[in-house]
Amino acid sequence: MIAITRDVSPAITSCELTHLARHSIDLDRAIQQHAAYENAVRSLGVEIRRASPAPELPDSVFVEDTAIVLDEVAIITRPGAESRRPEAAAVAEVLAEFRPLLHLVSPATLDGGDVLRVGRTLYVGRSSRTNHEAIAALRQLLKPFDYRIVPVQVSGCLHLKSAATQIGERLLLVNPHWLAASDFAGIERIEIDESEPHAANALRIGDTLIYPAHFPRTLEQLDYRGLQIATVECDELAKAEGAVTCCCVLVD
Hints:
Order of helices and strands: EHEEEHEEEHEHEEEEEHEHE
Low-confidence stretches: none
Radius of gyration: 17 Å
Number of domains: 1
Number of strands: 15
Strand content: 15-25%
CATH architecture: 5-stranded Propeller
Helix content: 10-25%
CATH topology: L-arginine/glycine Amidinotransferase, Chain A
Distance between the termini: 4 Å
Number of helices: 6
CATH superfamily: L-arginine/glycine Amidinotransferase, Chain A
Strand order of the largest sheet: 2-1-15
CATH class: Alpha Beta
Largest sheet: 3 strands, mixed
């Protein structure tokens, strides 16, 4: 498995923000945290491949939003924020080594953080960044590969993966206030601690979860369930509405 990552841009303080107030970001600390995150991913036997740096693109460290990687193909997205659309080309260049590429085009807009794959089902968040045209385009592009597309209404957060991520074969970590649990019928769910609304984002690699250290109450619930967890510090990147899934694109 490889993980495509990208350096933290020195312009990250000018990042796009939708649901968070703007706070000062310590660039040096953000870079250190990102390096530690890469080391945590690498420690799980994953090879790190960096896309070319983009110092002029504030959000470019959040590579997940530029691509959806499936078994058969990779889809290069068209991010919902216009300022982020130039991010996709460098990630596509790396992905082309591993998958045939398909592309979303106007008027579709979609952030990869709005796509949660469970088996052959893609749950797609209808958010401020992902529109109906993108969901229709995904259905068309993936028709030959027999994936089921399930739209999920998201509110109160940036992406679907802000509200739900996969932490087991048929197990999700969710914030039930930001989506309808009924959209995930038949899948077991663990709810985050209510005092930690942003705690539903975990990165699953094999049997291990990479998880933010700054959500101790939800972390305690995960520990109680016997899940294998590697914690990382990522509170600086969180100020840019970033999380652990969005800092890499996994390719198996």
